[in-house]
Amino acid sequence: MQIDWLSKLRNFLQVLAFALAIATLQYAFMPERPYGPPAAYSLLIASITWAIIDLGRHLFPSSAETGWPKGWSWLLLVLSGMVTGYLLGTWAANQLCIYYGWYPAGAGNSVQVRTSILITALAGITGTYYFYSVGKSAYLERKMTEARQHANEARLKLLETQLEPHMLFNTLANLRALIGSDPARATEMLDRMIAYLRATLAASRTTTHSLSAEFDRLRDYLELMAIRMGPRLSYTLDLPPELASLPVPTLLLQPLVENSIKHGLEPKVDGGSITVRARRAGPLLTLEVNDTGVGLATAPPGNAGFGLAQVRERLATAYGSQVAISMAADPAGGTRASITFPYTP
Question: What Å distances lie between residue 275 and 236, 253, 258, 334, CA to CA?
Fold first, then answer.
């Protein structure tokens, strides 16, 4: 088991602070004696007890929840740590008292000895419970983070499965119409669909992929649509090289392009063009889909179209409230849809 030594150092410093607090309380009740003896006893007993318990617990099969031994092992470890820490710490402190000429080593009646043992026991139990609680809380927090991550991934997968049939059924309907009227184009369309589905299958194994993979997948889709629409559809994909490896949710741009084709270019007799571009502005990434279609007149009101709703929900799942989605009339004609979210290399 790998030990987090930075965490151990933090624990040790907390133990030292706790020991000094106990020594200060003892000194407050005996101000006629020097501060050194109670500090020496408290620090040495606490340090040895901590070392045996906190380092020794890694020698046992640990519980995944807390990092502490299972069953009765943890109780035996704590008891042995407190007893050994008290005996060794007291002996070492006695030697320091002799060396520095403080009050005689072992001085004190049986009441003081019992008090010292009681303080050691209470401090050991309190410290053990504290570190046990911290370890368990950290474990629960990790599990909650993992659960939220898995839930987000599952939600993204669900949204993707909802969107894929939407596109697939539209394509199959067009393919059926072409089989009888233009078999050659139907064959080419089928080949493009196979290539697109192969890329989709590769992307479905993860919830994110690179922006270049997203553009490649989008190119497969647009080629598929270009067979159906013929010369009525042209497109441009603009991806700066420095943004190619940026991770983004899969199936992010296709819904916007679908909206452009369905509500912008298809209703237009002579069709038009679609431009998809990516650009970075400081800590934000913006993806734009511009078309030269009929404009917002036939677009879904209030950005409530199926594709836009899916994109909004996918980005909200991945990035929370740091997302902006807009659809507006392009000054050059047509519609401009844009999504902005944090740049996360």
Answer: 5, 12, 13, 11
Q: Maximum distance among all alpha carbons in the chain?
A: 109
Task: Give the span between the Cα atoms of 16 and 253, in whole angstroms.
Answer: 57
pLDDT in tens, 149-162: 665 565 555 555 54
CB 262 within 8 A of CB 332: no
Residues 307-325, buried b or exposed e (16+ Cβ, 10 A)? bbebbbebbebbeeeebeb
Joined tokens for residue 291? 């078309």
Of the candidates 71, 21, 81, 76, the one whose C-alpha atom is nearest the C-alpha of residue 50 is 81
Phi-psi region of 21 (alpha: psi -120 to 50; beta: other; left: phi over 0): alpha
46, 16 Cβ separation under 8 angstroms: yes
Distance between CA atoms of residues 38 and 31, nearest Å: 11
Q: How many CB atoms sit inside 10 A of residue 9's CB?
A: 10
Of residues 283 and 297, the one with the higher pLDDT is 283
DSSP 320: T
Amino acid present at 140: L
- Kindly report, residue by residue over 30-41, the tens digit of the pLDDT: 787 788 888 888
* Calpha distance 37→96 (Å, rounded): 8
Q: What CA–CA distance (Å, rounded) separates 281 from 237?
A: 19
> CB-based contacts of 204: which residues, under 8 Å, 6+ apart?
157, 160, 250
Decide if pLDDT at 304 tops 50. no
- Confirm if 11 and 54 have CB atoms less than 8 A apart: yes
205 three-state secondary structure: coil
Report the DSSP beta bridge partners of residue 286. Answer: 279, 340
Task: For residues 48 and 70, give the distance between their C-alpha atoms in angstroms, rounded to a whole number.
Answer: 22
Instruction: State which amino acid sits at residue 103.
Output: Y
